[in-house]
Amino acid sequence: MVAFLMDGPEKARATILLAHGAGAPMDSASMTANAGALAAAGLRVARFEFGYMAGRRTSAGRKPPPRAETLISEYATAIGALDCKGPLIIGGKSMGGRVASMLADEWHASARIAGLLCLGYPFHPIGKPEQLRTAHLATMKTPTLIAQGTRDLFGAREEVSAYKLSNAIEILWLDDGDHDLKPRKAVSGFSVDDHLKTLSNKVAAWADRLTA
């Protein structure tokens, strides 16, 4: 059984299903802040956990995350369990968004999802820029929005600008943001709340276009 954390109005114009990153649960500070901002913009947000992360809540051990490819079926199960009646956008933070990106085209082709939202896409492992995770992004057909901090160690702006990405992908760059999209206010002049507002406004407008 898939457990969800729900935010936002029940009769929203679109629902966004979000999976967590590799190391933090669905109720992490980052996930909670993002969900709250999107909900405040009028979107319905559903968060869920993959089995290995949910197991950490009841097990004494800290089971490491499996390979992203092995979580595709779990994500598909979550989509089915959510049973969304209106427009659905799938995605997640970091690894969660990457997993969603691996099944997005299949689900979009059958009109079961409207788009893909990635919050801090892990373009490569930290310190290993040669190990790109972008092959499928070059041919992506699903309308996709990636929110990325300009100093994200998993893919900074200078690096990503050189990648071959599909025209279906739009990137929202958040100035001085890290992998959690957080800026250093003393450096950038922006606060976390500033970036959350920019993110939520952009996603809401983008979702409106997808569901018009």
What does this structure look like?
This protein is α/β, with parallel strands linked by helices and 212 residues long. Strands 1-3-2-4-5-6-7 form a 7-stranded mixed sheet, sandwiched between helices. It has a single domain (5-211), classed as Alpha/Beta hydrolase fold, catalytic domain (Rossmann fold, 3-Layer(aba) Sandwich). The chain has helices at residues 29-40, 51-55, 72-82, 95-109, 157-160, 185-188, 192-211; strands at residues 5-7, 15-19, 44-48, 88-93, 115-119, 144-149, 169-174. It contains 7 helices and 7 strands, in the order ββαβααβαββαβαα. The protein starts with a strand and ends with a helix.
List the helices and strands and how they pair.
Layout: E1 5-7, E2 15-19, H1 29-40, E3 44-48, H2 51-55, H3 72-82, E4 88-93, H4 95-109, E5 115-119, E6 144-149, H5 157-160, E7 169-174, H6 185-188, H7 192-211
Parallel strand pairs: 2-3, 2-4, 4-5, 5-6, 6-7
Antiparallel strand pairs: 1-3
Helix pairs in contact: 1-7
- Helical/strand content category: alpha/beta
Q: What is the CATH architecture descriptor?
A: 3-Layer(aba) Sandwich
Please give the alpha-carbon distance between the first and last residues. 33 Å
What is the alpha-carbon Rg in Å? 16 Å
Number of helices: 7
